[in-house]
Predict the 3D structure of the following.
Amino acid sequence: MEKLAPAIAPPPGIGDRRPSNKAVLDWVQSVAQLTQPENIFWCDGSEQENDFLFGEAGRLNVLIKLNERKLPRSYLHRSNANDVARVEQFTFICTPTKEEAGPTNNWTEPAETYQKLHRLLKGAMRGRTMFVVPYIMGPADSPLTKVGFELTDSIYVVLSMRIMTRMGKVALERLGESTRAEWNRGVHSLLDVSPERRFIAHFPQDNAIISVGSGYGGNVLLSKKCLALRIGSYLARKQGWMAEHMLILGIESPQGQKHYVAAAFPSACGKTNFAMLIPPSHFAGWKVTTVGDDIAWMQIRDGRLWAVNPENGYFGVVPGTSYKSNPNAMRSIEHDTIYTNVALTDDGDAWWEGKDGAPPAHAVDWRGNDWTPASKEKAAHPNSRFATPMRNNPVLDPHVEDGDGVPISAIIFGGRRSDTMPLVFQAFDWEHGVYIGATMASETTAAATGAVGRVRRDPMAMLPFCGYNIGNYFRHWLEMGKRLTNPPLIFHVNWFRKSPNGQFLWPGFGENMRVLKWIIDRSENSAGASESAIGYVPRARDLDLNELPSVSTEQMATLLSVNADEWRNELAGHGKFFDSLGGVVPGELQKQREKLAERLS
Ligand code: GTP
Ligand code: SPV
Ligand code: MN
């Protein structure tokens, strides 16, 4: 916890490189006048600056240095125990009218919200340092790339932003001198880290974000969910592109044929793991590479959809990560990583539930309390996370810096469903695919505060991230489909179907390659499927299941089954969801639901 961290005093040459854009300088001055920091630290993203700030963060107990031999240049951060995940109930879209925010967002009136937040920010940085963090989202030379500035009183935020974004000089160069340039204004203050004074407010029309009262990742790294998804989706519709909660991966055959796919799974439902997949030994010569693990910005070129990853690092779920489940993630977090809310072993190592090997005999848990294997509490918080630069990833795709992006052959939706949803199925066409995305659901996870394991509709995995009216968002998807002459095929996957005794039926992780291979083959027209009421479903013989010993024939049949009773329930769920949106759902999607009902009857 760092709420009490006092102002820092940088030596000459550090923290004093003021940008020259007049609009930025004026805005920083106005926020400083409001928040009254002791001093302003102008970040340039340099190595010296980073070293200095890590040193200060250690000195001020904002970060704990981990064992240098085991985890070089890596640190542990503990957030406040009341502040461990995204807070959807305190997240607001502040458009001039409530209709623009739509039925799925919390809305408050912009002028009133500014007033309320400015009251909270008044003098909030007294005795502290305000950091100015310039950053870009997207490769330096991409037409999609956006400039953002985050003003924050948290050193943890600054150090994390340097991992998660391209930060510093590169942003000032991209911005230039024009006072009319488009850039995002982000203001963050910890205040007193109280849930009573915790608000994440977005002003899409102003390209502005104000986040107060939290010090936890997704609430305060304003580049990520706030800019790249909420404000991003709003800009994307206006400007004719897409901002999506999707991983992007490349898959290359032994013959050198390469495809890219993008996949939208809700928070903590497997994007990072899928994006770093290592094919099982049976798939000798196949290679999977990561473009991105959480966010895709996509545009149309030559009738195809092209995607860039706007981020520079991964803010990934730690628990369950091991050399067995995700070796590439493990290698990525062996150095230069900030861990948040994991346990600390007596020899300065990081530990979490699901890590390889035996648990330590003693550790300090994520709250800072003593922990032993006999403890009832978890050592690491279920939503503990790593922030690690993407260059640490041993399978980083070589085209990750390409400004034009990579061409997408397939879009995959998916969620955590114990029942109903088969392992994989394919939409009949784009419009049907949009329906599948619009009605997808998932059991809730620890990534947001609130109940875990409750099935909720999460359209395109964007429920918490769509920065405008969800009906218009669906319309935008339908419009994009009309402009695509060579659209990606659309699929739905479910790694999480369970047997009646509650065991996962599918081994998942690397074995998901078998599903990915079918998806790729379908886009090359070289794999079979049977046509069902819900879409094209592979038969067991259409999948490569060789050397997959852990799944019996009966299990496989269940995994691929479309159960009529379950689907009638599912259909009713779709209807209830559409009704709950109060008339904003496009007619095309209502028609899709009627067609599904007919096929099921
Ligand atoms: P966000 O960063 O919150 O957007 O999440 P994400 O979608 O990137 O999820 P991630 O890959 O971090 O996975 C979250 C959890 O799901 C972890 O605990 C994983 O171990 C688990 N998981 C991922 N893939 C699989 C799978 O194929 N099968 C099973 N059973 N669990 C999986
Ligand atoms: C998610 O919850 O989808 C995340 C983590 O990717 S956070 O950045 O905290 O939102
Ligand atoms: Mn995410």
User: Anything to note?
Assistant: The CA atoms of residues 216 and 295 lie 19 Å apart. The chain is about 25% helix and 20% strand. The pocket of manganese (II) ion (ligand 3) is lined by residues 245, 267, 294 (CB under 6 Å). The mean pLDDT is 97.
